[in-house]
């Protein structure tokens, strides 16, 4: 029988690995060694790397420190402020952690970050890991009301925020540090150096620690108490204060998409080993010390994965605060990028560019990694036409992290497949009683891996678990060869006239119809049949789009799918309502 998830404690996650777990760790060395994460190095560097892993595990703080000690001069990030090296990024993470600690932040505290893609995000991740705090990733599309509710619910101690979002803050906001705008700030010449007066045991706990050192300050100033992140960095560089020698392994709280209301916080553990990277790299041909364009927002699970894998690989990550399809293609060519991380709506906008806007050398691009929602089949075909066999479809969720990855040869043969589970991952399709269903039969998708989330931060919110596997909330089936296919969300399926109807099947069909730019199909109440489908279509700006009619769409569906799959209503929109991660927000669709 299925059960609700029990949130894990710190002790749960610190248990010694089992024999099977140790075997997986050994298997996991293969992909990380092949990718160059693990490799030969001199005794001095090896000692530094081992020390960093001991102090900060495989958190962002540990990965930054390892990269700085192995390849410190390598460019870590190229953003709208220019390039920054791994040595400099690591020093900034240390400086920010020191400054926040001097201002009272301690282990188990909480840092919130409301920012677009830039170096500050990685600095915050590294600083949080060095402090042993939890890091809450806030959605840049949140309203003032949503943001206030989330800040209160998550009990944020410090909020690191882009200046453009400060008008959303209320007087009840926590302490606030504001990231600099795009223009680079003047940087001291010795910014990357250790403080001159830094004692040998500077990373150790102070010998005489006040009894109330971990207590909250007596007062919590409102938004009037704001400081620039650059000021904090400058303060931290000058400081000789100590940081925890081996801090608590913190948590990252990722907010759910919030398509139906205020987002919930999903608590995710930091990686304990190389296995999360090994899982992805077992089916993604990424290599260390290459360049990656990360277009996916880092506050989202997929963008966060891109940043974590990028740090592990010592990649040069090209970041932009706002996504622009033409600029993204130009970045690939300019920086000779080998990988691009996107959500499907970004990929669609890139493939829809006029050929002239893609007239750059893209010969270095080996991987387009897409996730966040289903990739329309039309976009799959167009991606292969434009870029060749480079598309990898990643299926996962905020709660289960990853489930499966479809490689290019699988997508060419089966454009709607979610692929196969990577290393160390179990995927099962179960019936309502928790029993596996035969191949070809639709059931509920359950996943097991080493990075399942630990529970929602909001009481009363739970995720179903069956036999140690966690529900994704999706319906799906396996084909005889073991490829996974998704049939839609469990709560999206409708029963119309006694027949089970899956909206995604209709969406995939319409995405290949000439004249359809994008579409969404949802179930609505029907007094006669119980429920019926409604299709919302955005037309292309060409003769095919202009010629598209409601009757034409219905006829196309009727010719290819069962009668009960034909939408009863078709509405043409200028655009679909989406959240910042590209997911359609059904409640914002006009009523049919």
UniProtKB/TrEMBL annotation:
It comes from the Bacteria. SUPFAM superfamilies: Acetyl-CoA synthetase-like. Pfam families: AMP-binding, AMP-binding_C. CDD domains: AFD_class_I (cd04433). Residues 184-229 have a biased composition (Basic and acidic residues). Residues 505-583 form the AMP-binding enzyme C-terminal domain. Residues 1-20, 180-273 are annotated as: Disordered. Residues 66-456 form the AMP-dependent synthetase/ligase domain. This is AMP-binding protein. It comes from Rhodococcus daqingensis.
């Amino acid at each position: 029988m299925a059960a609700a998830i029990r949130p894990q404690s710190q002790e749960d996650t610190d248990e010694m690995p089992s024999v099977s777990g140790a075997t997986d760790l050994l298997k996991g060395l293969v992909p990380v060694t092949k990718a160059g994460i693990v490799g030969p190095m001199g005794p001095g560097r090896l000692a530094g790397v081992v020390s960093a892993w001991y102090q900060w595990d495989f958190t962002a703080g540990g990965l930054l420190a390892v990269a700085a000690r192995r390849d410190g001069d390598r460019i870590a990030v190229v953003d709208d402020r220019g390039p920054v090296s791994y040595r400099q990024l690591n020093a900034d993470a240390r400086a920010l952690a020191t400054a926040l600690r001097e201002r009272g932040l301690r282990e188990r505290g909480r840092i919130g970050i409301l920012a677009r893609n830039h170096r500050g995000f990685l600095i915050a991740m590294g600083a949080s890991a060095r402090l042993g705090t939890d890091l809450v990733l806030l959605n840049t599309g949140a309203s003032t009301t949503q943001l206030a509710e989330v800040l209160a619910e998550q009990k944020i101690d410090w909020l690191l925020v882009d200046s453009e979002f400060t008008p959303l803050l209320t007087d009840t906001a926590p302490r606030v540090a504001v990231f600099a705008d795009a223009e680079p700030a003047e940087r001291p010449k010795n910014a990357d150096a250790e403080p001159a007066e830094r004692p040998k045991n500077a990373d150790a706990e102070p010998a005489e620690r006040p009894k109330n050192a971990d207590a909250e300050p007596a007062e919590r100033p409102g938004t009037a108490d704001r400081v620039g992140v650059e000021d904090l960095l400058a303060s931290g560089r000058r400081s000789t204060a100590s940081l925890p020698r081996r801090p608590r392994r913190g948590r990252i709280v990722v907010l759910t998409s919030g398509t139906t209301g205020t987002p919930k916080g999903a608590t995710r553990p930091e990686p304990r080993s190389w296995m999360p990277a090994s899982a992805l790299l077992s089916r993604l041909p990424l290599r260390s010390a290459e360049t990656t364009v990360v277009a996916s927002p880092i506050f989202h699970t997929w963008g966060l994965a891109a940043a974590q894998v990028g740090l592990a690989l010592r990649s040069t990550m090209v970041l932009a605060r706002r996504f622009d399809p033409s600029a993204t293609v130009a970045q690939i060519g300019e920086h000779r990028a080998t990988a691009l991380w996107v959500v499907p709506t970004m990929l669609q906008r890139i493939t829809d560019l006029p050929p002239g806007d893609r007239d750059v050398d893209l010969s270095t691009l080996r991987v387009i990694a897409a996730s966040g929602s289903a990739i329309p089949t039309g976009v799959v075909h167009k991606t292969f036409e434009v870029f060749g066999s480079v598309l990898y479809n990643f299926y996962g969720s905020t709660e289960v992290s990853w489930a499966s990855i479809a490689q290019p040869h699988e997508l060419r043969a089966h454009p709607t497949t979610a692929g196969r589970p990577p290393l160390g991952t179990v995927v099962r399709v179960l019936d309502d009683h928790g029993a596996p269903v035969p191949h070809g039969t639709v059931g509920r998708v359950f996943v097991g891996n080493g990075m399942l989330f630990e529970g929602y931060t909001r009481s009363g919110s739970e995720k179903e678990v069956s036999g140690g596997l966690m529900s994704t909330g999706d319906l799906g089936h396996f084909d005889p060869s073991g490829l996974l296919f998704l049939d839609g969300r469990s709560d999206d399926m409708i029963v119309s006239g006694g027949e089970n109807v899956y909206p995604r099947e209709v969406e995939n069909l319409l995405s290949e119809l000439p004249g359809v730019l994008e579409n969404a199909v949802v179930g609505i109440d029907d007094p006669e049949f119980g429920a019926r489908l409604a299709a919302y279509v955005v037309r292309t700006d060409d003769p095919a789009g202009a010629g598209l009619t409601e009757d034409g769409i219905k006829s196309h569906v009727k010719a290819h799918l069962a009668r009960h799959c034909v939408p009863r209503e078709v509405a043409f929109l200028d655009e679909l309502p989406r959240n910042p991660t590209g997911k359609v927000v059904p409640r914002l669709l006009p009523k049919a």
